Sequence to fold (220 residues):
Amino acid sequence: MSEIIESCSECGPLSCYRKDKTPPSFCLTEAADQQVVAEIVEHLQGDNLDARMARAAAEIEGMYYCKATRVEETVLFAKRIGAKRVGVATCRGLVQEARTFVKVLRANGLEAFTVVCKIGSVDKSEIGIADDVKIEKGSYEAMCNPVLQAKTLNAQKTDLNVLVGLCVGHDSLFIKNSEAPVTTLVVKDRVLGHNPVAALYETHSYYRRLLTPPKDPEEK
Ligand code: SF4
Fold:
């Protein structure tokens, strides 16, 4: 068990939301540099993309609270930031859902351009992946190529990119290489039907093992 450094995860009152409770001694709001806070506020009052995204996200939260699904919120967000062309970076395994989402985008007057994770079709061995850790040993098995997915959408000059089920880490690479802002519609969880929070709900029972993980055999 590593040393516990107190931060928001150890906070009971969560008083930064309504300022109606006493904050804890380690409160990050209390410790925040007020000059930095003021600079952020000023930045978000303008007409730059960050400001438009900040206002769009807050307005959608307030206006559609518990009414709009995430699919609907994504469309609303794209429209409110003035996006015309939406990139869809999808996992091959979720391409049916991506196709449906593209229909939703088009029905709402948005352009859509989709790139599947296996674009480029580079065998995993090319980046040093051993055959015994392929899903099907001895086969040609293309790696996910989120860098090429991002570069392809960059070339398409998309205004917003939406992730549909990219793997953990592949999503990180995509986000790192995307020029347009990125939002996530679907997070992949092959075990839990793409609902990873279910594991957290169950740490008191079926997923207790998450709190006492076995040592990773690869870990030194
Ligand atoms: S900022 Fe302060 S009040 Fe808000 S969650 Fe973190 S510790 Fe709690």
